[in-house]
Design a protein that fits this description.
Strand content: 25-35%
Shape: extended
Strand order of the largest sheet: 1-4-5
Largest sheet: 3 strands, antiparallel
Radius of gyration: 19 Å
Distance between the termini: 58 Å
Number of helices: 4
Helix content: 25-40%
Structural class: alpha+beta
Length: 134
């Protein structure tokens, strides 16, 4: 029987290769990557073997710390920029049920926190208050 599945919402890190940011990509993957024959493509070691990232491909860090290239059109269809929004906070409250909330917020949300806004998020018995410094 064929069944349908929905991809779990996870936060990934990625950087787009533009042929001028090799040092940033090397830092991102934690080692110096090799070029292919031309300086316009990088060799990305993946769990399935070496893959080539061409100009404007995205280099993605997977959930187990692995790296792999992704074509720009596929990336655009699959991912959206993480935002610090009400729906995301509500989903996280529902998922965690209040366990380890502060640790999870620090790891997954505050990297994109806008210090110019005060936000209060409520869900069931929980309230998360993010306040502007000062």
């Amino acid at each position: 029987m064929i069944r349908k599945f929905i991809k779990k919402p996870i936060v990934i890190e990625a950087i787009q290769w533009d042929t001028n940011n090799k040092k940033a990509i090397d830092r991102f993957v934690g080692k110096e990557l090799d070029y292919t024959g031309a300086d316009t493509a990088l060799i990305i070691p993946t769990l399935e073997g070496d893959m080539t990232a061409y100009c404007f491909d995205w280099i993605i860090k997977g959930i187990k710390g692995e790296f792999y290239p992704c074509k720009p059109d596929i990336f655009q269809e699959t991912y959206e920029k993480e935002t610090f929004g009400r729906k995301r906070i509500q989903a996280f409250f529902k998922k965690l049920g209040g366990r380890k909330i502060a640790e999870y917020v620090m790891k997954n949300f505050l990297s994109n926190y806008n210090p110019e806004c005060n936000e209060t998020y409520e869900f069931e018995n929980y309230t998360l208050i993010i306040r502007k410094k000062g």
